[in-house]
Amino acid sequence: MRILDPHIHMTSRTTDDYEAMYAAGVRAVVEPAFWLGQPRTSAGSFTDYFDSLVGWERFRAAQFGIRHHAAIALNPKEANDPRCREVLTEIPRYLLKDGVVAVGEVGFDSMTPAEDDVFAAQLELARDADLPVLVHTPHRDKLAGTRRTLDVVRESGLPPERVLVDHLNETTVALVHDAGMWAGFSVYPDTKMDERRTVALLREYGTARMIVNSAADWGRSDPLKTARTGHEMLAAGFTDDDVDQVLWRNPVEFYGQSGNLVLDPVPGFVAGEPPAPGVEFEGSSVLRGVRA
Ligand SMILES: [Zn+2]
């Protein structure tokens, strides 16, 4: 099973997770920018974080044989803080960096007017940078939030195939599917979707434009939920090719629209062995030699 986890916050995870993910078939990830749990108080807090997403985390993942990519954005929750909104002027330069494959996560949290403005502004940044967009849907009032999300996307004029709408469930999948956008499912241990419900939706809607992620972060979550969903698909009668489509080819097609995916194996990497000294890393010369 080969897996690209299209939404996972590796900054919050351990090296044990990277090892377990590799063993389960994960060969690439996309890490969208999100909030830290603790509110940020300045734009500088974001730029340090973005730098670590495109630099340090990319290097760390490569040591475990996993290709790391990032999506960059001001997250919906912090769009409400004027101190955070200042980062919007910094985002365009990050969208040009190696390994940045999308704008994200953007969208609504509490559906405030400030979130509306920041969402629309970032869709415009995506258009200017010619990148796809990862859109978060609110956990409260999900149906109304998803409807409003689709309205904002339509107003932006972005082509539907450039947009992945995430955290969907039984009540919201049809809206996104019918709109021609990519449908994302975050499979969590005890909230959002589980493997079984996700597989039921794959049976109902088919495997085209359907994407499964672990959305693992610093909360109770599981970075192996992509693999577990793949095994649940097989147990339910889907083929290996179906699993490959959902866990690999679909996210590759979506993020591949950026032209920035790197998917060849990490040179010099051998599972279970310490990284070779020359393990490839294109991100930052500062990081070379950090690990003796
Ligand atoms: Zn997330």
From TrEMBL:
Gene3D superfamilies: Metal-dependent hydrolases
Keywords carried by this UniProt record: Hydrolase, Metal-binding
Superkingdom: Bacteria
UniProt record similarity statement: Belongs to the metallo-dependent hydrolases superfamily.
Taxonomic classification: Bacteria, Bacillati, Actinomycetota, Actinomycetes, Micrococcales
Organism encoding this protein: Myceligenerans salitolerans
InterPro entries named in the record: Metal_Hydrolase (IPR032466), TatD-like (IPR001130), UCP005295 (IPR012022)
Record-given protein name: TatD family hydrolase
Entry's Gene Ontology molecular function annotations: hydrolase activity
